[in-house]
């Protein structure tokens, strides 16, 4: 009887795996189709100088526009894109599109604006990826100093020679390098010493419960002091309240990003926002 039960358990498990796989394959098929049919788009979220509310630049965030017009967020397809190699054409698209967009905003007179793009660890395994990025920057004729690459901690943990080479190549070319989601995972302070990093993005999870949560307040304060002492730029992610701005400003975190200022929006809306408010974020009075 035990044997019988075992077999049934196995069957159920097998079925679940099968269902999961089928779903995944279906999603891969749809994603491949979306990439071919250019059903991807880029949204932009402002980075804001907290003291002046001036927009200093944008983070490019990819979106998948489904057949019915609904928007599929990156968390639902980036991991799959990485596993299947589809991240390569997706990233080429995001780079080409967002660099050209930045060029347009520069031409409108907002020449100080920068663009940040997210790079996943998988991409750094590609031979010549640094050359690929540099080529895209050249094609769009944007100053490399206005391009920032956001890398997650995974990349630093792996600590592979090719990754380090990538970082030095893009830095030598004049681009900036940020550690994204800093503080989650296995943050090691040695990253800051061993890699040519120019900025840190404090993860949203630490900002979320500021200023009331004492642990988060301490952690944030510590990251801010650390960055200041090492002369590294700081961006706080996920700012949603004026109290958070006040906390961060008082502790001299210069830059922030979050729904309080703006959600990620299509390029056209960014252009409107820039022109209407001359590069400033209107202070929202709730
Ligand atoms: P990320 O790079 O940490 O991007 C920040 C995420 O936080 C974005 O989610 C943004 O919409 C969200 N966010 C910003 N401010 C707030 C806030 O005030 N409150 C809350 N609750 N959320 C906020 P999104 O666009 O869904 O992107 C999720 C992740 O997907 C990104 O995290 C990034 O790791 C990845 N991703 C997005 N676009 C790309 C891309 O083009 N290439 C690669 N490789 N990864 C991408
Ligand atoms: Mg990012
Ligand atoms: Mg982030
Ligand atoms: Mg984050």
Account of the 3D structure:
Residues 24-278 form the EAL domain. This is cyclic-guanylate-specific phosphodiesterase. The protein is an alpha/beta fold and 286 residues long. 50% of the residues lie in helices and 19% in strands. It has 12 helices and 10 strands. It has an 8-stranded mixed β-barrel, surrounded by 5 helices. The longest helix has 35 residues, at 2-36. Bound molecules: ligand C2E and magnesium ion (3 copies). Residues 59, 118, 150, 180 line the site of one magnesium ion (MG).
Oligomer designation: single chain
> Helix segment count?
12
Q: What order do the strands of the largest sheet run in, or round the barrel if closed?
A: 1-2-4-5-6-7-8-9
Q: Note the overall shape.
A: globular
Protein name: cyclic-guanylate-specific phosphodiesterase
Domain EAL: 24-278
Organism: Idiomarina zobellii
Considering the chains and any ligands shown, give keywords for the structure.
binds magnesium ion; eight-stranded mixed β-barrel; binds ligand C2E; globular; cyclic-guanylate-specific phosphodiesterase; 50% helix; 286 residues; alpha/beta
The gist of it:
By secondary structure, the protein is of the alpha/beta class. Helix content is 50%, strand content 19%. The protein is built from 12 helices and 10 strands.
Give me the secondary-structure topology.
Layout: H1 2-36, E1 40-49, E2 54-65, E3 71-72, H2 78-84, H3 87-107, E4 114-119, H4 121-124, H5 129-140, E5 147-152, H6 153-158, H7 161-172, E6 176-182, H8 190-194, E7 199-202, H9 204-207, H10 214-230, E8 233-236, H11 242-250, E9 255-256, E10 265-266, H12 267-277
Parallel strand pairs: 2-4, 4-5, 5-6, 6-7, 7-8, 8-9
Antiparallel strand pairs: 1-2, 1-9, 1-10, 2-3
Helix pairs in contact: 3-5, 5-7
Bound molecules: ligand C2E and magnesium ion (MG) (3 copies).
The site of ligand C2E has 23 residues, from strand 2, helix 3, strand 4 and strand 6.
Organism: Idiomarina zobellii
Protein name: cyclic-guanylate-specific phosphodiesterase
Domain EAL: 24-278
């Amino acid at each position: 009887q035990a044997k019988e039960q075992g077999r049934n358990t196995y069957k159920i498990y097998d079925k679940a795996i099968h269902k999961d796989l089928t779903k995944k394959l279906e999603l891969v098929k749809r994603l491949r189709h979306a990439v071919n049919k250019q059903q991807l788009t880029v949204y932009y979220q402002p980075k804001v100088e907290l003291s002046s509310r001036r927009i200093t630049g944008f983070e490019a965030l990819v979106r998948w526009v489904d057949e019915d017009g609904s928007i599929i967020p990156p968390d639902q397809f980036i991991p799959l894109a990485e596993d299947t190699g589809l991240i390569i054409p997706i990233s080429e698209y995001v780079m080409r599109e967002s660099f050209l967009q930045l060029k347009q905003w520069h031409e409108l007179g907002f020449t100080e604006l920068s663009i940040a793009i997210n790079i996943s660890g998988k991409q750094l395994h590609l031979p010549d990826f640094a050359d690929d990025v540099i080529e895209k920057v050249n094609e769009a004729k944007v100053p490399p100093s206005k391009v920032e690459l956001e890398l997650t901690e995974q990349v630093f943990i792996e600590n592979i020679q090719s990754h380090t080479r990538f970082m030095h190549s893009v830095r030598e070319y004049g681009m900036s390098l940020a550690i994204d989601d800093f503080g989650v995972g296995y943050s090691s302070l040695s990253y800051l010493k061993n890699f040519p990093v120019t900025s840190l993005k404090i993860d949203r999870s630490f900002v979320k419960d500021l200023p009331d949560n004492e642990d988060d307040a301490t952690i944030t304060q510590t990251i801010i002091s650390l960055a200041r002492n090492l002369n590294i730029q700081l961006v706080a992610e996920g700012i949603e309240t004026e109290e958070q701005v006040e906390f961060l400003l008082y502790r001299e975190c210069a830059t922030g990003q979050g729904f309080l200022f703006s959600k990620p929006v299509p390029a056209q809306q960014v252009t409107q926002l820039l022109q209407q408010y001359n590069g400033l974020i209107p202070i929202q009075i709730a």
